[in-house]
Each structure stands twice: as C-alpha cells, then as structure tokens.
TrEMBL record:
Protein name in UniProt: TIGR03084 family metal-binding protein
Origin species: Actinomadura napierensis
Residue stretches making up the Mycothiol-dependent maleylpyruvate isomerase metal-binding domain: 8-141
Bilayer-spanning residue ranges: none
Pfam families, A to Z: MDMPI_N
Entry-linked InterPro entries: DinB/YfiT-like, Maleyloyr_isom, MDMPI_metal-binding
SUPFAM superfamilies named in the record: DinB/YfiT-like putative metalloenzymes (SSF109854)
Amino acid sequence: MADVFEDLAAEYRQLDAVLAALTPDQWSAPSDAAGWTVADVVLHLTQSEEVVTGPSITEAAAFLPSTATTVDGAMAERVAAERGAPPGELLARWRKAAFATPDALRAHPPGTRLSWVRTPLSPRTLATTRLAEHWAHAQDITVPLGIVYPDTARLRHIAWLAHRTLPYAFSVAGRPDAPVFCDLTAPDGTQWTFGDPAASTRITGSAAEFCRVGARRLTPEQTGLRAEGPDAAEALRLVRNYAA
C-alpha cells in the first residue's frame, strides 16, 4: 500500500479544503454525528489530534482520562467542555494539530508502541486509525450539507484496518475468531484483497461501502456487499474501522 503517513496528510488536506469553505451557518449546522454540530465534530477531531502530537501518547492509559464509563462518553464530555469557539479559531487549532500529526508519528523509532484508548498501537497503525476517523467524520460533515467528498485510493488503508481488526471485534462480541477473505472493488475499479482466499467466509463488493459499514455510516442491508460462508453475517455486523 501507499505510505500511510503521506496518505494521512493528503486526507487532512482534502478535509481542510472542505472546512475552509464552510459558512458560519454550516459550522453550526447539525452533523450526522448524533447530537453534534459540524463545529463539534471538528472540535472532537482536534482534541484527538492534540493527544497524538502530545507527550502523553507514549504513556499508558493516557488517552482521554474521564469519569465517563465509555470511550464515547469521554469524547462527549471533552467536546461539551470546550465547545463554543469561533469557527476560524477552531479551524486554526485543528490545522495546527492535524498537520503536525503525520511527521510526529513518522518520527517515532521502530518498535514504539503508542497509548491509544485501550490498545497500544504502532505509529503506522495509529496513523491508519487517524485516517479512518477523519474520513468517517468527513462523511458526518459533508453528507448532511450536500458537499461532495470523493472516495480515493486512501480507502485501502481503512479497508485493511477493518479486516485486520475483525479478530478483535469477534472477541469483544464473545465469538471465536473466524477467517474472513475480502475481495473489494476500489474506487478506480481495481480489486483489493485481504485475508486468505481459502477462507470459508467471504465478503465481496464495493470497498467504499465496506468502509462505510465499518464506520457505522451504513448498515450491511443498505449496501450491495455480498457475504457468504458460516460467519459472513456476523463479520459484516461486527466489522469496525478502528483498533480499540
């Protein structure tokens, strides 16, 4: 695959072009993230990026300490505590953190494990999760506003992450791991494959739809994805584009 750090920077640039063109009314409009405005979504991304580029990223359990009992609850607490900044100030803060992230992650020496939610990650995997989260939240911003946000070859990183974390998703659901083979059609029409072709469970179809299912932006029933094999339905139900 292409260099994930370079692709992460490219994803930030694509989102930045959208954010820079938003009107004040669009910043305050509801997003597709339940209960959050567009500004709230950008604030959440900003807060997360500031953890990535901060010194606590190498410390155990450093991510978003909170009285909340869930990660989503902790995120909501942090957004509620800081919302209200003018759009220009918020955009500048996001840019400062986001545009520093690729180089900050690339600079960690080989073998480094970084604290993220409940799971230590390598810098490359954390870069992939940041790309996946920014892409998913870009959907939350652009879809309700009717703004075009083209799918790109960068989705390959996100599809890889979704497939790679299936064993974890199965374990969280209390199910034994099951091999899954994915044969996905990229935005440019080429094929991306993940896993063992001999696996008894197979998922085929659009990579863009697969990534949206993994991001919980579409249900499997809303897509043309085809799932075959003993664990196919569960794999599509549990797939997720994040590593914790």
